[in-house]
Amino acid sequence: MQRMMKIFAMAALLIAAMALPAFAADAPQRPILSVDGTGQAEAAPDTATVVLGITTHARDAATAQNDNAHTAGLIQQSVQAAGIPARDIQTTNYSFRPTYRTEDNRRNEIDGYTVDNSIVVTVRDIRKTGKVIDAALKSGANAVNSLSFGASDTKAVRQAALQKACADARAKAEIIARSLGCRIVGIQNVSENTGDLSPRRYNGPMLMMAKAGSAADTPIEAGTLTLHANVHIDFILANA
């Protein structure tokens, strides 16, 4: 008798389990409202990267190379004297090339050699940026190829931008839902696309013009950095 009761109980459970999908399929699907949200947050830069250029030219290769190396050494010394440690000074993009005469009948003749060299300086106290540029130019740098400002910690600004993007999406969804006579009862899906905190850049000609117009320290304004965030949220609606 007990065995028969167990068999009947198992059969009843099996029938109920088979009926659930059919019941779920018959249940009406709740409407979904898809909304995009945007947000942005700002951060104060705390690091500057300066790329200095050194170009030397001479009739013979050895002189061009020695002159460039000598100038590079002077620049490194002056930048260190401005408060930049040696670990934050790096040589990059070294090139050596012959130059040729331009006369029609002598175009294949070498008339000298040119050496190009770049020094990248990381300034961790951005108040020293103008001082570093001035020291390098006085020591023989003949170009400021670029200057960019960045932030070492982007976590907080990224969170702030995402929070604003989510709040923007929610506010839009609330307005639309109320207009349709509905209310938000849940979230089905969320995706986000957050950009990087792009450095603020100055190009070389801008910096050289700024310096040429003033005998004082090179004017440098770090400004602020902006990060943009985007979210896509699928809200579940129900009748109000």
Topology:
Layout: H1 2-26, E1 32-43, E2 47-58, H2 61-81, E3 89-100, E4 110-123, H3 129-138, E5 143-150, H4 155-179, E6 182-194, E7 200-203, H5 204-212, E8 225-239
Antiparallel strand pairs: 1-8, 2-4, 2-5, 3-4, 5-7, 6-8
| Total beta strand runs | 8
Strand order of the largest sheet: 3-4-2-5-7
CATH superfamily of the largest domain: Protein of unknown function (DUF541), domain 2
Shape verdict = elongated
- Please, how many helices? 5
Order of helices and strands: HEEHEEHEHEEHE
Could you characterize what this model shows?
It is a single chain. This protein has helices at residues 2-26, 61-81, 129-138, 155-179, 204-212, and strands spanning 32-43, 47-58, 89-100, 110-123, 143-150, 182-194, 200-203, 225-239. The strands form 2 sheets. The chain has a 5-stranded antiparallel beta sheet with strand order 3-4-2-5-7. The protein contains 5 helices and 8 strands, in the order αββαββαβαββαβ. The chain folds into 2 domains: 29-44 and 153-198 and 224-240, Translation Initiation Factor IF3 (2-Layer Sandwich); 47-150, Protein of unknown function (DUF541), domain 2 (Alpha-Beta Plaits, 2-Layer Sandwich). The two termini are 53 Å apart.
